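Record type: ASSEMBLY
Status: queued
Input:
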Amino acid sequence: MIMAVALLLIVLASVLFHVFNPWWTTPLASNWRLMDDTLTITLVITGIFFIVINLFVAYMLVRFRHREGHRAAHEPENRKLERWLIGGTTVGIMALLAPGLVVYANYVREPHDALVLEVLAQQWQWRFRFPGEDGKLGATDARFVSATNPFGIDPADPPGQDDLLIAANEVHLPLGKPVLVLMRSNDVLHDFFVPNFRARMNTVPGQVSRFWFTPTVAGRYEALCAQLCGVGHPNMRGYVVVEEPADYKSWYAALPTFAGSQAKAPEAPAGGGTRVEQGRALADAKGCVACHTIDGSPRVGPTWKGLYGKTETMADGSTALIDEAFLRSFIRDPQARHVKGFPPVMPRIELSDEELAALVAYIQSLGSPPAQAAAEQKAVR
Amino acid sequence: MNSPAPTGHAVPPTDDAGHPAPQSFLTRYIWSQDHKVIAVQYACTAIAVGVVGVVLSNLMRLQLGFPGQFEFINAERYYQFVTMHGMIMVIYLLTALFLGGFGNYLIPLMVGARDMVFPYLNMLSFWVYLLSVVVLMASFFVAGGPTGAGWTLYPPQSILPGTPGHAGGIVLMLVSLVIFIVATTMGGLNYVTTVLQARCEGMTLLRMPLTVWGIFVATILALLGFPALFVSGVMLLLDRTMGTSFFMPALVSMGQVTGYKGGSPLLFQHLFWFFGHPEVYIVALPAFGIVSDLISVHARKCIFGYRMMVWAIVAIGALSVVVWAHHMFVSGMNPYFGFFFATTTLIIAVPTAIKVYNWILTLWRGDIHLTVPMLFALAFLCTFLIGGLTGLFLGNVSVDIPLSGTYFVVAHFHMVMGVAPLLVVFGGIYHWFPKVTGRMLDDRLGRLHFWITFLGTYAVFFPMHYLGVLGMPRRYYNFDGYQFIPPSAFSMNELITVVALIVALAQLLFIANLAWSAWRGQRADANPWRAASLEWQTPATPPGHGNWGPRLPVVYRWAYAYGEPGAAEDFIAQNAPPEAGPGEPEPEGQSEVRGAPA
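Status: finished
Output:
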């Protein structure tokens, strides 16, 4: 009896939870309303099935509970009933599958007039590339990847010269235009997932994977990595800004080309004259912020808040004062030694002397703790 | 030390178990070739390693419920916990327990054999399994710790810096898996051969209990599926240690161009899931079989549609090897595969639904005893139902695209292949414990354990579906600063963690019950549930060496002779003489055909 009540309560609680809980799909911002519709169809069909079966079992537990002197009926099979059940289930399954496959056929069929966007994934940051005026993306290869050419574009390939590069984690897209997303990875599997767009795909090193969608609602959407890619996985974030075509055009016009970025020596990033400001911009552009916070919370690497002036313990047990000289040598060769308590995964990033000075100045500006706090920090470690 | 009797070796006349009776403590309990002892060894090892898996899941939940409050759970450790929890639960607990534990104990007793046909191989299988567990556990103690690559071990990530344990942990993991597969293969060959060759007189294939059918087909799947994991494990090991590039394309790691070139990460995924999806059914089919028997015995009614149940098991087993790429809908494989694999995946729902209907129709007009094993069987029905239905979301490619890689997937697979089979494990242990030990498990402790486990796991995993629909990705150490996740989701995570801790603690009740009842429990008679199948008809309880005394049993009917009209009792044992009652029913279709001209 109590089991029957428990099943009733589970059905009731599940239905109430479904109705009243605050979590459902994020607001849709793409053309894939059909994906939400197939979700709804599936939910309704399976939900009815779930409720009916559980209630039926609960009923039987009461109706056919053990009573003294009672004996079960002898009923080894019932072909007719079984045939009906198989038939009904098959129809139900087809009702689920058919709309699903129709929607998927749309997903596989790419529009011809789509805007081409390349997403490049690398532990733990996103970069983006547009094909530029010629409409063709330049050839790429892992062996061309370097700090000055993070996309690995073949310098000798003509279509690559006018490619437009976005070395930061935010890309803009025009409202209402289909986008064909081509995806590459420099290192491991990743997955470019913007929940509001529904559409998504893994990025796989060594191949180009693809999907398409049409942004339908303006806004700034969070992109995240949805395929485990190492310790920094939760920090691999990006943004997609969907805006009016005019706004998009002016943003697009300011993008640097590949040829341009290769020709001149890396310039000091825009955004303020002071060295500290330059350092802040560099930390964003080079992806340092994927692993280092400035709010005191440790991530993949130590936070920069209060780092300068602190005494850190190294993995080999030695200690070192974090000063300008230390930071310079550490950034130049991050694999030479490791800070205790953090994974030894910091990549070597090519920086000019000026850039290095700016970055170190920025880290320095995030403060050195008082001597006592430093001592406490050390004790904790 | 014991060894298989060479040909011509003098064997005691009453003993034809294929090996002599044990003479000492060592050969009786340690280097034992008796399937019943090996089963208990397998089960105890699997449960012990399962406890580690549960502890790891709770450490993980602590971080998710109370992020950053437990300093020792840093990102690296979190991923190591996730990985080891998954691998332990799927492979080292569930696979080992169902095949090595239940399979070993029940197959010979249920088909009327004196032992497995290769007792020495059977013993070896356990010790090799134990070795694989030791190697796995050793990875906790090597520099860099165990691998944190996720239980799927996807390259390139699993063997590159940036993933915890990429130095020693992953190597030990792969070596352990390879050893485990050797053990499973030795056990599997044994189970299949025993079912096919060692059934007693009268035990036709279509008289075997569904438990044996489930384990039999699952074992065949294991023999087909595990080799795919074996080769992918060896190849990944070569990529990691010898610098080969089976799965590694040209890539850049931590800013450095590596020497890898030309390999395919997708190849690994295909091989992994070619094993991985049948693996779901390696765990599920024994559970299906056992739950059929529990429901039939405790509802005192013959299983409804026995033949259909057997064919459903076979059909599910066959279909399970052509659905693997539904794990890869968004992997970047050829998108046209999606149509095929979505279709095969949804087709598998039909035989699965038949099983659910037939369990329910077995209850219809039954005489339902709500014993502890029956409670677990009913809880399995409810849990498996929701887990199976959410499979229809994820198997349908366009519904899967937004849900893939979110907590919806976590909720689905925990319901369907975590909680549901474990409920059957518990139900099965409460059911067969009297046969194994001669004593009953404590009923009140059992009920307490049941209610906390059933309702607790439901409360843990049901809400996760909704967090997944929202888009919360799985395998996240924390969710700092994601705007699309409302604060309420974090409160939910706290609640889930608290419930998960309670459920984990409740498992101590179960372990205490096992330990206490094995020595102090109420004595059981030979057939406390009044079951018809053969394992309850042994001359001694617990069964002695060779199981059947001087003469093997002879079987006259199927295992589900409950509620036969006119019979003296409400069950007739499989080996009761023909006068006791009729054999199994004629297939209804045949009598229909005969009656048709009239």
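Annotation: Chain B is about 60% helix and 0% strand.
Annotation: Chain B touches chain A through 123 residues (CB under 8 Å).
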